[in-house]
Design goal:
mainly alpha
Protein backbone atom coordinates (compact mmCIF):
# COMPACT_ATOMS: atom_id res chain seq x y z
CA UNK A 1 0.00 0.00 0.00
CA UNK A 2 1.03 3.55 -0.49
CA UNK A 3 2.56 5.18 2.51
CA UNK A 4 0.65 8.39 3.37
CA UNK A 5 2.84 11.26 4.35
CA UNK A 6 1.75 13.51 7.19
CA UNK A 7 0.43 16.75 5.75
CA UNK A 8 2.01 19.65 7.65
CA UNK A 9 -0.14 22.26 5.93
CA UNK A 10 -3.12 21.40 8.13
CA UNK A 11 -1.30 21.22 11.46
CA UNK A 12 -2.23 24.77 12.49
CA UNK A 13 -5.87 24.27 11.55
CA UNK A 14 -6.01 20.97 13.40
CA UNK A 15 -4.54 22.61 16.50
CA UNK A 16 -7.10 25.45 16.33
CA UNK A 17 -9.96 22.97 16.01
CA UNK A 18 -8.73 21.03 19.03
CA UNK A 19 -8.21 24.21 21.07
CA UNK A 20 -11.75 25.50 20.43
CA UNK A 21 -14.02 25.37 23.46
CA UNK A 22 -17.76 25.43 22.74
CA UNK A 23 -19.44 28.60 23.98
CA UNK A 24 -16.35 30.81 24.18
CA UNK A 25 -16.78 32.73 20.93
CA UNK A 26 -18.25 36.23 21.13
CA UNK A 27 -21.37 36.50 18.99
CA UNK A 28 -22.49 40.10 19.47
CA UNK A 29 -22.13 40.90 15.75
CA UNK A 30 -24.05 37.79 14.70
CA UNK A 31 -26.81 38.56 17.22
CA UNK A 32 -27.07 42.15 16.01
CA UNK A 33 -27.21 41.01 12.38
CA UNK A 34 -29.95 38.47 13.15
CA UNK A 35 -31.98 41.06 15.07
CA UNK A 36 -31.68 43.50 12.16
CA UNK A 37 -32.77 40.81 9.70
CA UNK A 38 -35.82 39.97 11.83
CA UNK A 39 -36.80 43.63 12.13
CA UNK A 40 -36.43 44.26 8.41
CA UNK A 41 -38.40 41.11 7.59
CA UNK A 42 -41.35 41.90 9.87
CA UNK A 43 -41.63 45.61 9.01
CA UNK A 44 -41.02 44.95 5.32
CA UNK A 45 -43.78 42.34 5.34
CA UNK A 46 -46.19 44.83 6.90
CA UNK A 47 -45.35 47.46 4.28
CA UNK A 48 -45.77 44.97 1.44
CA UNK A 49 -49.13 43.82 2.87
CA UNK A 50 -50.37 47.43 3.10
CA UNK A 51 -49.25 48.27 -0.43
CA UNK A 52 -50.84 45.11 -1.87
CA UNK A 53 -54.10 45.78 -0.03
CA UNK A 54 -54.20 49.35 -1.29
CA UNK A 55 -53.47 48.34 -4.89
CA UNK A 56 -55.99 45.50 -4.81
CA UNK A 57 -58.83 47.63 -3.47
CA UNK A 58 -57.97 50.71 -5.53
CA UNK A 59 -57.73 49.03 -8.92
CA UNK A 60 -60.35 46.33 -8.73
CA UNK A 61 -63.45 46.85 -10.90
CA UNK A 62 -65.72 49.17 -8.95
CA UNK A 63 -63.05 49.89 -6.34
CA UNK A 64 -61.86 53.29 -5.21
CA UNK A 65 -58.56 54.70 -4.12
CA UNK A 66 -60.11 56.14 -0.98
CA UNK A 67 -61.37 52.75 0.24
CA UNK A 68 -58.01 51.18 -0.57
CA UNK A 69 -56.18 53.91 1.31
CA UNK A 70 -58.44 53.63 4.35
CA UNK A 71 -58.07 49.84 4.48
CA UNK A 72 -54.28 50.03 4.05
CA UNK A 73 -53.98 52.63 6.83
CA UNK A 74 -56.15 50.53 9.17
CA UNK A 75 -54.06 47.41 8.51
CA UNK A 76 -50.86 49.44 8.84
CA UNK A 77 -51.84 50.92 12.21
CA UNK A 78 -53.07 47.58 13.55
CA UNK A 79 -49.92 45.86 12.28
CA UNK A 80 -47.73 48.54 13.85
CA UNK A 81 -49.22 48.00 17.29
CA UNK A 82 -49.19 44.22 16.84
CA UNK A 83 -45.54 44.09 15.75
CA UNK A 84 -44.32 46.73 18.21
CA UNK A 85 -45.97 45.04 21.20
CA UNK A 86 -44.40 42.25 23.17
CA UNK A 87 -41.45 41.95 25.44
CA UNK A 88 -37.98 41.46 24.09
CA UNK A 89 -36.04 38.64 25.66
CA UNK A 90 -32.65 39.60 27.04
CA UNK A 91 -29.83 37.29 25.97
Amino acid sequence: MADHQHDTLHDAADHDAEAYVHGTMTIEEQSATWALFQDLAKWGSLIIACVLLFLTLAFQPGGSMISGLIAAVVVGVAGYFFLKGGKKAAH
